[in-house]
């Protein structure tokens, strides 16, 4: 009987293994057939990512509906007059910023489509069109059939040197708001070709290469000179299928049976095609098949093991049932260990087991609660520390501050120490040093207020918008202990999501109050406020710590850090402002005083200029 059971088990195991092999092989064939489709989908996503990166709109180089009408008089006469003069001056500044802030841009041309317009703008500077050495773009613009076109070309940068460019041409029709007259103009953006190719290479893997094809000029441009020949690339373009597999090029590719998966995608912005090639070797296919085969085998073995255990469970079911009955009876009677052993022997039908060990484990139901509490508290402290460290995750502070230091000195050399940009960089250095100092996560309320003031000064310079703030901080609360960077995200939320339009005045009111042992910080603004349902939803998220996606991520992070530092009874509450306009953010903290040695870190106005640059 025993040998017969063993034979059945062996036969069952062999059958399961054979079934696992057959099913695993079928799964491998199925998935290997879809590998090419998956790779082609990845190549299509890569093409869309490249297109978005190359032709993403530059906010300084995006004309409005009256753009060239405002420039018409300036580009025809070289003079500025009336109200159009102010608009033209603003456009010149935007063109200059657009070319300056994008390191990929060589130059930007803005010109009227009229032949009698004698002037053009080059990087925001007025130039005589006839005096330019590069006029190839003019012929291209006039021959454009679509509103957008691109090509790659070379221009002379000096008598002997040439610059290789990647040029995008766009036609804009502007409408006069006075007489509804249409004024047509051209904007030409010249990118450094090497920068464009480097940016493309940064977006793709080492196994991939990209070839750009201009169908109008019939031009090909590759990121890798070892790619397919021009003849082979043109054969791909002439194929009916825009994706597939072709043999690799070169002796090494032939010997190693290297094949290329290709995909041809068109640009959504300009008349341009992306030919993306990726190596696909037999080794990679073999490894993928083995992977899926093993996956199927392991899955089926696990399924067979479960079936095997279920069969044995059925065999010993009566013994388990008897054990449960004995344990239930003994627990009700409160019997001793000897009596339990006797009952276990009866319930298990005389099965040989170490019944004394089973009896002792059943009777010993006392658990050391104190040890469990200690372990739980230790686990909570560890989790709190990890989450706080994650919330305060920092990049390399020395690298960042040293880089800003270099930018600061360059700006001071070019613009002077009183220049707005120089002051902005200086304030940014102070804020970053304050934020990246991990020696103590707690500081005084006065230090937090000083950091928030520096942030508002930066925002006012950056947005060119009037931002005023009223600070009601009692003298007795300036030494209160608070967590770092609590006020700055709240102020940023008020400015970014307060519903302010360009030119609006932003007013912020920051107030501190103490009630019993709780410190309250109120931050109010004069913005458009928040709908009642949205405010109720956000307060529920803050109170119950619900993980959701929201545009108010700064408020959620501050609320989470406060609850980690002080407890879940503290945090953020949103409420309407007292005058009915804007939003008030109420922050509740446990009132504590900073240690005496922490008072040495104060902001001294005469030391601000040296703090940022003494880190080298």
Automatic annotation (TrEMBL):
Broad class of enzyme this protein falls into: transferase
Matches recorded under Gene3D superfamilies: Histidine kinase-like ATPase, C-terminal domain (3.30.565.10)
Task: Quote the cellular component terms of the Gene Ontology held in the record.
Answer: membrane
Where would I find the Histidine kinase/HSP90-like ATPase domain in this sequence? 485-589
- InterPro entries given in the database record: Bact_2-comp_sensor_kinase, HATPase_C_sf, HATPase_dom, Sig_transdc_His_kin_internal
Q: What is its EC number?
A: 2.7.13.3
Q: Where is the Signal transduction histidine kinase internal region domain?
A: 391-466
Q: Which residues cross the membrane?
A: 290-314
UniProt GO MF annotations: phosphorelay sensor kinase activity
Which keywords does this chain's UniProt record carry?
Kinase, Membrane, Transferase, Transmembrane, Transmembrane helix
| Top-level taxon | Bacteria
**Protein name, as recorded:** Putative sensor-like histidine kinase
User: Which species is this record about?
Assistant: Eisenbergiella tayi
């Amino acid at each position: 009987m025993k040998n017969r059971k063993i034979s059945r088990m062996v036969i069952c195991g062999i059958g399961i293994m054979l079934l696992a092999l057959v099913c695993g092989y079928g799964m491998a064939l199925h998935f290997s057939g879809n590998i090419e489709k998956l790779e082609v989908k990845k190549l299509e996503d890569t093409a869309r990512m490249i297109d978005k990166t190359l032709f993403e709109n530059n906010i300084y180089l995006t004309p409005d509906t009256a753009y060239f009408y405002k420039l018409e008089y300036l580009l025809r006469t070289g003079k500025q007059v009336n109200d159009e003069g102010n608009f033209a001056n603003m456009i010149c500044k935007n063109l200059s910023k657009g070319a300056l802030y994008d390191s990929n841009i060589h130059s930007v041309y803005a010109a009227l489509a009229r032949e009698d317009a004698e002037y053009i703008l080059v990087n925001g500077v007025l130039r005589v069109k006839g005096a330019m050495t590069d006029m190839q773009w003019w012929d291209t613009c006039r021959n454009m059939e679509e509103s957008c076109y691109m090509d790659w070309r070379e221009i002379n940068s000096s008598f002997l040197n040439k610059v290789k460019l990647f040029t995008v041409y766009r036609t804009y029709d502007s409408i006069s708001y006075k007489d509804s007259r249409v004024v047509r103009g051209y904007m030409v953006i010249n990118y450094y070709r090497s920068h464009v190719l480097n940016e493309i290479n940064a977006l793709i893997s080492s196994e991939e290469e990209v070839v750009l094809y201009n169908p109008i000029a019939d031009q090909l441009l590759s990121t890798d000179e070892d790619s397919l020949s021009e003849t082979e690339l043109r054969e791909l373009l002439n194929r009916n299928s825009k994706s597939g597999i072709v043999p690799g090029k070169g002796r090494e590719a032939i010997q190693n049976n290297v094949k290329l998966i290709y995909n041809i995608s068109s640009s959504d912005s300009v008349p341009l095609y992306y030919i993306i090639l990726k190596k696909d070797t037999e080794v990679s296919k073999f490894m993928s098949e083995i992977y899926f085969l093993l996956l199927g085998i392991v899955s089926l073995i696990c399924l067979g093991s479960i079936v095997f255990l279920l069969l044995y469970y059925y065999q010993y079911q009566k013994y388990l049932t008897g054990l449960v009955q004995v344990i239930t009876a003994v627990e009700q009677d409160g019997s001793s260990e000897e009596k339990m052993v006797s009952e276990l022997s009866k319930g298990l039908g005389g099965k040989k087991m170490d019944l004394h060990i089973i009896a002792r484990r059943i009777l010993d139901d006392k658990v050391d609660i104190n040890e469990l509490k200690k372990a739980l508290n230790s686990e909570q402290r560890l989790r709190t520390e990890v989450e706080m460290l994650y919330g305060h995750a920092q990049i390399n502070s020395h690298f960042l501050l040293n880089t800003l230091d270099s930018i600061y000195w360059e700006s001071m050399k070019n613009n002077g120490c009183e220049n707005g940009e120089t002051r902005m960089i200086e304030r940014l250095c102070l804020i970053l040093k304050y934020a990246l100092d991990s020696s103590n996560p707690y500081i005084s309320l006065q230090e937090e207020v000083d950091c928030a003031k520096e942030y508002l000064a930066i925002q006012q310079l950056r947005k060119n918008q009037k931002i005023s703030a009223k600070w009601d901080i009692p003298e007795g609360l300036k030494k209160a202990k608070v967590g770092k960077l609590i006020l700055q995200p709240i102020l940023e939320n008020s400015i970014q999501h307060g519903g302010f339009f360009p030119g609006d005045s932003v007013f912020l009111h920051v107030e501190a109050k103490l009630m019993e042992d709780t410190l309250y910080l109120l931050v109010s603004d004069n913005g458009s406020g928040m709908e009642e349902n949205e405010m109720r939803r956000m307060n529920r998220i803050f109170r119950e710590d619900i993980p959701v996606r929201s545009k108010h991520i700064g408020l959620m992070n501050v609320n989470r850090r406060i609850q980690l530092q002080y407890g879940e009874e503290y945090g953020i509450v949103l409420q309407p402002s007292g005058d009915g306009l804007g939003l008030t953010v109420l922050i509740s903290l446990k009132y504590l005083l900073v240690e005496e040695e922490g008072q040495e870190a104060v902001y001294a106005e005469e030391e601000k200029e040296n703090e940022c640059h003494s880190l080298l």
